[in-house]
Amino acid sequence: MIAASVRGALVRIARLRGDELVEFYLWNRDAPDGVGDIYTARVDAKEKALAGCFLALGGELSGFMPDSAGAKSLNIGDHVSVAVTRAPQGGKGPRLKALPRPPGEIIGLVERGPGPLLDLAARCPDAAVVLDDYALIAALRPALEGRMRHDSKAFDAVLEDEIAALHEPVAALPHGAKLHITPAPAATLLDIDASTASQMPPLALNEAIIPEIARQIVLRNLCGGILIDFAGLKPAQRERLIEPLRLALRADPLRPHLLGLSHLGFAELSRPRIRPPLHEILPR
């Protein structure tokens, strides 16, 4: 099931498997993240060192298109139709790809992207969509006719509590362990605190909490480089967690790439940057 709850311009979106929250997104309709937006753009600069080019999108907005996404054949001054494949985040502009359609004469936005709710509904075509707002139901009817129903309590108290916990930089893990989440521009560090955990052997404890770590990565949309510092293990023991972690990451819709262990013993993974991570867009 997909549940959506409206608070002004903000739509909170949850995908549930039974009673378990497995994905969560925020959609600000007054300031959408831009993923899927289509523009007529103009090439302003070619950057050989970056293997791509910078394009003007209208106003002061600009984006970057890699050569692999269609920039290689372009020249400065060319007009091209582009789509946003990665939202602006971390101080960087949007990432773009060329589209096989004629560009317009005026630089600027042509069409808004579908937003995270319709993206999720398309990815989960068998999921019912429950919303607590009749106006949003009417707006989405052309795309989701027959799949939606109204429920004034689309988010129950348990779900509200779990979503509120996503505002915090510490997440509860099974057996009393805790996950400390520290984002930085280059990477996000996930540190396991087992000081108040049960008296399980360290290897068994770390293996038991891996599914919840993978779930928190998805719920918070942590992306880019991610380092996981497991608790209280020798290097040889950490190697034994790689396969359980790889299996847990298979449920992630963004299919992160597990790189292995660093020299410092961190499990390293790379998760695609598409929409901004939750900590960048949560209301303050």
Tags for this entry?
284 residues, alpha+beta, OB fold (Dihydrolipoamide Acetyltransferase, E2P), 3 domains, 6-stranded antiparallel sheet, 7 helices, 35% strand, flat
Protein architecture, described:
This protein is α+β, with helices and mostly antiparallel strands and 284 residues long. The chain has three domains: 2-29 and 114-158; 38-111, Nucleic acid-binding proteins (OB fold (Dihydrolipoamide Acetyltransferase, E2P)); 166-281. Helices cover 23% and strands 35% of the residues. The chain contains seven helices and 17 strands. The strands form three sheets. Strands 4, 5, 6, 7, 8 and 9 form a six-stranded antiparallel β-sheet that branches. It has a six-stranded mixed β-sheet with strand order 12-13-14-15-17-16, with helices on one face. Strand 14 (187-193), helix 4 and strand 15 (224-229) form a beta-alpha-beta unit.
Quick overview of this protein structure:
The protein has 284 residues and is α+β, with helices and mostly antiparallel strands. Helices cover 23% and strands 35% of the residues.
Q: Give the DSSP E fraction (strand runs of 2 or more residues).
A: 35-45%
Please give the oligomerization state of what you see.
single chain
Mean pLDDT: 94
The low-pLDDT segments are: none
Count up the helices.
Answer: 7
Residues in helix, %: 10-25%
Number of domains: 3
What is the radius of gyration? 21 Å
Distance between the termini: 28 Å
